[in-house]
Specification:
The protein folds into two domains: 136 residues, 3-Layer(aba) Sandwich (D-Maltodextrin-Binding Protein, domain 2); 95 residues, Periplasmic binding protein-like II (D-Maltodextrin-Binding Protein, domain 2). The chain contains eleven helices and 15 strands. Helix 9 packs parallel to helix 11.
Length: 272
C-alpha cells in the first residue's frame, strides 16, 4: 500500500512538471499554432504591424490610407531587417490588446504607452521615448488650467479620445469635470481651438507637436507632466521574437537613430 502511494505521488509530481513546462513553452511561443512569430513572418513574407493611425508624430493614416510617422518608418526598417514586406493593420486604442491576442498582427507600434495592464497581455520592448500626461488648452486660457485642481471643476469641459490611457487618466483624476468623449483623435484638438471643449489631458509628446501646428493651443504646464511613463513596442510573449525586436530597437536607440527620426517626424508633421 505504501509503495502504491509513493507511485501515485510520483505520477502527480511528473504531471505537474509536464504541465509547468507546457505552460512555460506557451509563454515563449505565439498563440497561433504553436509556431514562433519569426517563423510565421518569414514563411508568409510579411510583417503585420498593428497601429491606430491617429497619434502624430508616431502614427498617422491619411484619407488615402497612407501611413506616416516615426513608428511607421521604424516598422518599415524592422521589416527590411527581416527581409519581408510590411503590412499595416488598423486597430484602435480600445481594441489594441484584444487584436494582438487574436493574432491580427505580429507587433503593435505607434506611440503605445507601457503600463501594467498591457504587460499582463504580452511583452514590451525597452522604452524608446519617455513622456507623461499633461494638459493642453487655448492659449488665452492656459493660466486657468495649469493644475488638476483647476481642471477638476464641473464647468470645465475636458475632451478625451476613448479606449486608451488618456481616458483612464482623465476619469481617474477628474471625477468632477464635464467629460466629453470624442472618437476622432486626428481632429480632437480642433474642438478645443474652436471652443467646443476647454482642455484635454494627453501625452506631452503629442502636445509638443500640436502646439507647433496650431498657434491657438498651448501647453498649460510646459515642461511638466502629472506622471512619467515610456513608449514601447507591444508583442505577444515569444522569446525568440521578443529578443529579435529588443536587439534591433536597442541598436537604434544607442546610435541615436530614434532621437533623430523623432525630430524629423516632428518637423514633417509641423509643415502639414
Amino acid at each position: 500500500m505504501k509503495n502504491l502511494r509513493l507511485s501515485f505521488d510520483f505520477i502527480l509530481v511528473a504531471l505537474f512538471l509536464i504541465a509547468s513546462c507546457s505552460s512555460n513553452q506557451l509563454q515563449k511561443r505565439n498563440f497561433i499554432g504553436g509556431v514562433s512569430t519569426i517563423e510565421q513572418i518569414r514563411k508568409e513574407g510579411v510583417l503585420k504591424v498593428g497601429t491606430t493611425g491617429d497619434y502624430r508624430p508616431f502614427t498617422y493614416r491619411s484619407d488615402a490610407g497612407v501611413y506616416t510617422g516615426l513608428d511607421i518608418w521604424l516598422a518599415q526598417d524592422l521589416a527590411k531587417r527581416l527581409g519581408v514586406k510590411v503590412e499595416f493593420v488598423q486597430t484602435t486604442w480600445k481594441s489594441l490588446s484584444n487584436d494582438l491576442i487574436n493574432g491580427n498582427f505580429h507587433i503593435a507600434m505607434g506611440g503605445i504607452s507601457i503600463n501594467e495592464e498591457r504587460k499582463k497581455v504580452g511583452h514590451f520592448t525597452s522604452e524608446y521615448l519617455t513622456t507623461g500626461k499633461s494638459p493642453i488648452a487655448r492659449c488665452k486660457d492656459k493660466l486657468k488650467y495649469d493644475s488638476l485642481e483647476e481642471i477638476n471643476q464641473p464647468e470645465v469641459r475636458v475632451i478625451v479620445n476613448p479606449g486608451g490611457t488618456n481616458e483612464k487618466f482623465t476619469k481617474a483624476n477628474l471625477p468632477k469635470a464635464f467629460i466629453v468623449i470624442y472618437p476622432d483623435n486626428n481632429t480632437i484638438f480642433e474642438q478645443i481651438a474652436e471652443g467646443r471643449a476647454d482642455v484635454m489631458i494627453t501625452d506631452s509628446s503629442e502636445i509638443d507637436l500640436i502646439t507647433r501646428i496650431n498657434n491657438q493651443l498651448c501647453a498649460t504646464t510646459p515642461g511638466k507632466t502629472f506622471d512619467r511613463f515610456g513608449k514601447g513596442y507591444f508583442m505577444l510573449n515569444d522569446s525568440e521574437w521578443n529578443l529579435y525586436v529588443d536587439t534591433w530597437l536597442n541598436e537604434l536607440i544607442q546610435n541615436q537613430t530614434i532621437k533623430k527620426k523623432y525630430q524629423d517626424a516632428l518637423k514633417e508633421f509641423s509643415k502639414s
